[in-house]
Amino acid sequence: MMNPTVEALLILQERDVRVSALTAELENLPIQIEAVEDDLAVRTAKFDETKVKTRQIEADRKKLDLDVQSKQAAIARYRTQQQTTRKNEEFSALNHEIEHAEKEISALEDQELELMEAYDKGLAVVAQAQKDLAVFQEKAKQKKTDLEKRTAAVTAELTGAKEKQAAAEKTVDEEVLSRYRRILKSKKDVALVPIHGGSCGGCHMKLTSQTVLSAKGGENLASCENCGRLVYWLE
Ligand SMILES: [Zn+2]
């Protein structure tokens, strides 16, 4: 027959494990929610960056266009000057200026074409990125909702689990309880372990036959000589 104290401790331990698991989950949930938010912020920033980059292409093209316009105006001025001059030298100098400006305009227009193509590509990239972002936003929203629901559920579950834990604590003798709590605090995992093939179920070291017999007898609480955990005989 199992020692009644061991029986009570096993129930308490099971409830302790539950409370620890729920507490750990509850501590982790806000971190998960924050990670979802951070991820979304990074994605949104990346999208904004893509949009700004694309807008910049169009702004650059408009600047080139203004250059073209001012050069065209200059050409018009040169032609007017040509009409008023009587000097051949000045006339050919103006011709030279006009040719030069026309070459520059041609180069600028080539650049403009390149930018127009880049802008079209950029617009397509932005449109796709916007769709991707919308999908991601929806997923993130769902994930956050799930995590918030889980937080509420775990909070409620933890309240119940703590009540059960407190009820189980009342069934254990105070001295035994403080010993159990002390072991649990130092071992972090469990304080009460079964004997497996003559070894401690916690640290797996061989137990003395005296300890095994004591646990088997079920009259006293036996403990592992190596790790100090309480051990019990499992039929
Ligand atoms: Zn041990």
Structure description:
The protein has 235 residues and is mainly alpha-helical. The chain has a domain at 22-153: Helix Hairpins (Orthogonal Bundle), CATH 1.10.287.1490. It is 80% helix and 5% strand. It is built from four helices and four strands; from the N terminus they run αααββαββ. It has helices at residues 4-84, 88-170, 174-187, 209-217, and strands at 192-196, 199-200, 222-223, 230-232. It has a four-stranded mixed sheet. Helix 1 (4-84) packs antiparallel against helix 2. It starts with a helix and ends with a strand. Bound molecules: zinc ion. The site of zinc ion has 8 residues, from loops.
